[in-house]
Every structure is written in structure tokens, then in C-alpha cells.
Design goal:
5-stranded antiparallel β-sheet; about 180 residues; DNA Primase, Chain A; 2 domains; alpha+beta; single chain
């Protein structure tokens, strides 16, 4: 069994991850990371930002198709996998990239699990479903989205919009 958070922490250098995943063609260095050709859609100019988030792990956002994710989502996209349905395979590939073997994972240690706010969780799920729809992939609504009220969905969309605005402002400050 792999320690997923350990893998995320080990794969935290955007330029190294971009190189290891073979995304250097057309890459442009940016402050805090790189802009690469999006692995989710075809494009001529790099529009996918790979950078380090506040928590020190990789964050990915395509400004063209709005696809977002972390280092595992990026790994999945490069290998033509779906992070939700092929999660174990994606983690195994990422572990290999990070130089981690299953026996290196802490055994018998209690790992704390961060509990995500339900609205943040719903917003993430809606964002993933919307990105799938925009990319022309089949959208599978999970039980959390289906059980949500229209008001909860609206609140989640407001949260996503606010997060996008904050990300754009941060990127503008970095570019200045």
C-alpha cells in the first residue's frame, strides 16, 4: 500500500514533474512553475499551468479548458487514465516517478486524515464533472452531486468562481 500524501510531497517540484512526465515540448517557465501543453486537449500554445500550491504540492490548471488537478491528475492525464476509475494504477505510476516502493510506506502508523468541508467537497466534485463535460468526456455524477440541492450547487459554483478569481489575481501578481 502506498502513502499517497507522501507521494504528493515527493513530487512537489513543478519543473521536475513536467520533465519526468515528458511535458517539456513547448514548455514555458513561469515564476513558481511552468506552463505546458495541456495533456487533456490538443493545443498549439501552452495553456496549462503547473505550479506549487500553498500546501507545497503540485497544482495544475488549464486556462483553456479549465481542467484542474494535482500531480496525480496530471500523471493520469499524461498516461491516458482517469484518476477516479484508475486510481490505484495512477498512484503506482506516481510512486514509481517519486522513487517510492510499497514497502517504503509507513506501516502501522496512524495517519491523520483531513476532513474536508462538505461545501468544498461538493465544489470539487462539481468542478471535476464540469471539466469532464467541457473536455467532451462522459460525465458520471456521483451520489454527492445527485443528493445536493439546487441551493447547495449554487453555493458550490460561487465558491469555485471565487477560487478562480483568487487564482487569477495571484497569477497576475506573480506575472507583474
Amino acid at each position: 500500500m502506498y502513502d499517497v500524501e507522501d507521494i504528493r510531497r515527493r513530487l512537489s517540484d513543478p519543473l521536475q514533474v513536467v520533465a519526468v512526465l515528458g511535458l517539456t515540448r513547448g514548455m514555458r517557465r513561469e515564476r513558481g512553475g511552468a506552463r505546458v501543453l495541456c495533456p487533456v486537449h490538443k493545443e498549439r500554445e501552452p495553456s496549462c499551468s503547473v505550479s506549487t500550491g500553498r500546501d507545497g504540492t503540485i497544482r495544475v490548471h488549464c486556462w483553456s479548458c479549465s481542467w484542474t488537478g494535482d500531480v496525480l491528475h496530471l500523471t493520469a492525464a499524461v498516461h491516458g487514465l482517469d484518476c477516479r476509475t484508475d486510481f490505484r494504477k495512477v498512484v503506482a505510476i506516481a510512486a514509481d516517478l517519486a522513487g517510492v516502493s510499497p514497502d517504503q510506506s509507513p506501516k502501522g502508523t496512524a495517519r491523520s486524515r483531513t476532513v474536508r468541508d462538505p461545501l468544498v467537497d461538493l465544489a470539487h466534485r462539481v468542478d471535476v464533472a464540469a471539466a469532464d463535460w467541457l473536455a467532451g468526456r462522459t460525465v458520471r455524477l456521483d451520489a454527492t452531486i445527485e443528493a445536493a440541492s439546487a441551493e447547495q450547487i449554487a453555493d458550490a459554483l460561487e465558491l469555485l468562481e471565487a477560487a478562480d478569481e483568487l487564482t487569477e489575481e495571484a497569477d497576475e501578481r506573480r506575472a507583474a
